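Running log. JK asked me to keep both predictions on one page so they can be read side by side. First protein, sequence followed by its tokens:
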Amino acid sequence: MEQLSAVIKNNNHNLKTAILYEALHKKPIFDSYRKFCNLVGQDAMEYPDFEFWYYRFYRGEMDFDYDRSADPTPKTIMDMPVKLMYKIMENLDTVERTYLRSMNQSIKDIVDSRPLSFEKIEIIIDDAGMGWDLDEKKFICEQNEKGCLVEIPNFPHTIKDEYFLTKGLKCLSPVLNMPNLKVNHIFLHIIKDTVYLNNLLPIPFHVKSVSILAFDIHKSLELLSAMNPGELESISFDTGGIITEEDVLEIYETEQFKQAKIIDSQIFLEVDNLRRFSHLESFECPLAYSEPGDFQRIRDMISTFKQFKSCKLERSEYGNHFDIRTVAEALEAETPFGPLKTITYRYRIPESNEFLKFKIKENEYRLFIKIVKIR
């Protein structure tokens, strides 16, 4: 087979004979070109030349010695006015623009001159595969006994003889590394520990809001540290594995946390660390073990937070020997007789006309406390 390919490739007449064969069978031109390249090699003939001879033979013009030197130079996509290229880009979504920029360096430079943005990117990676959503478009690479199953919008499902992370990252990394990329929200659900993901995100990554769920605290911190501080406004944080007090303090010391406005954390908050939340507009987290008197400390600390708008706190009361009434009394709120499931309490901030409004709810051994500043 290799000898036959070499004979055809090294003889101009034989190349045209192979093209004539494809044209006479009237197969779609791109399928014919692909078959031609598989036979004689990818570098035997550029597609525009193949297309020229294919359509001549298709029309019945069989002159193999036709002199093309007198023909006008054929136009290519690069002869298109730049304004028209920009007009085309306006009608493409962000994913389609990533395909466009892969055509050649000149088109890549044109595409990169206009900032690209996504409303939402979602990346989920586990032992069986990886999936990612770019706005409303879904991509999947799943491992199976033959390699990986690839699902890409507008393309048929294909099996690739590759490791799923290798193939998946080949598709995803060019998007994440696009110059001037802007993302409103990125969701990262990474529960597979592998070196393939050591450089998943470029640094700095420009995003306003991030949700992180990782297999351990160190991976969570690595992902968080890639975000551009100051530009990142909202952080949602959850993690697996054992978390030490040193780990928690390391999170609080990141510039991403210090410059954020909104925090939604599943890591237990020690009351003594609440002062580290003083710069936030809003936060939501579970409380670590606390005594009834700690709720008055919480109230007094939050009343000094200048940027504060609202928060939600959750505390398990199972085995802690106090209930909603105990907490309400600790806050010096009036409590009616009889069973309590909810209570609302207003606290006037000293030397201010502003109030903190507490709504406390008890449900299945848990206390839910919502605090809103009323101006």
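And the second, directly underneath as requested:
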Amino acid sequence: MPAGLAGSLAVVSLMRPSDALFLSLPLACAALVVLGRRALVPLAAIVVGLAVGWGQWLVEAELSYGGIAARLREASKANVTGLTVSLVEHARALDGPSLCRFGVKCGDVSPVALAWALAIPAMTVLGLWLARRAHRLGPVLLATITGVTIALPYLFYVGYVAPRFLMPAYALLSLPVAGAVTALRPRGRWWVPVIVLLAVGVLAHLTLQGTYAHRIAAHTLRDRARMGLAVEELRRLGVRPPCVIYGQAGAQMGYLLGCDALAIAQRFPDRLPAGIRQAMERGNRLVMVHTSVPLPPYARAWRQTDLPGRWKARFAPCTRAPTMA
């Protein structure tokens, strides 16, 4: 058990150090409350697991970000952190899109999706009550508290939303919810109505989430197809390594073309990034790609080529303009 605890927290801390910290808090408190003086071993496992990811984060902060304080400042800017309440935004994102940021509108609150979300705390409370009656409250309560703890930063600290942020919380809360479903054993004339209600609820859940997944996947596939057409046009125009793709979807297009890449989200910076200038000095061809964001002053005179799918490309004059293949 200690090895599994340390390994699990190590994986989480490598992926998201802050999530691992919030995950470890209820686990450490539970170890102290339940085990008392015998909590040393699980506490040591928690520390070891956190040390793996946080150790890497601290080393990278010193080597690549100018120190811990500088990295925290940059992370705060990038993640729009601070005391906030994003419950309404999370409600709007329940049925998509996958990220409500960088000018992407979350849309209105879907009553159906909201009903699904509100059913989770209701079923969680029912699961806790049934677990208490069955004298199995401890593990279920720990899973519930841990799930809520993981969700709190995304609800009250991070200033933008994405449905995937709450997936670890959903996974943990599924335990009391599943306990509520499996513990219900109606007798007599209530047996059939309750079983039908549970079956309808499970079917509705699968249908709802399947519909959302299909819709979001279809939208993503359309965007990727349009991007693929733009990439094929760039390839036809002779864009080959060594090159740098800079702009919206720069990372994806750069990968498909075999080029270095730097992506932007809402706008281009007012000055050409140092990394781009250095790549150009090494002889890389610079291609700027965009759809709707305003162009920076330094790129307005660059040669422009229209690409399929509403994309546009601009070629820096200090690089050799591509010729028709």
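Observation for JK regarding the second prediction: The CA atoms of residues 52 and 77 lie 25 Å apart.
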